[in-house]
Automatic annotation (TrEMBL):
Keywords for this protein: Signal
Signal peptide (UniProt feature, chain positions): 1-19
Protein name: SHOCT domain-containing protein
Key word Signal present: yes
Length: 71
């Protein structure tokens, strides 16, 4: 009986620890901009994504505005 209690407690503790770790991930919504990619390349990449349908026209416009005017 003691062994199954220890196993259940270990599993419960592992689940709680996992939940706490996952809750802490993604809590910061800070966007990091890669300054090493030239603006012309970023524009070309965005245009390619738009042409392929990976992003919408409004998403493209938003990203171009961010690229030119900052966050």
């Amino acid at each position: 009986m003691t062994r199954s209690y220890v196993t259940a407690a270990t599993i419960a503790a592992s689940l709680v620890a996992t939940a706490l770790l996952l809750a802490s991930c993604g809590s910061d919504h800070k966007t990091i901009t890669n300054r090493l990619v030239p603006m012309a390349q970023s524009e070309a990449d965005l245009r390619r994504a738009l042409d392929m349908g990976a992003i919408s026209q409004s998403e493209y416009n938003d990203q171009i505005d961010r690229l030119h005017h900052g966050d």
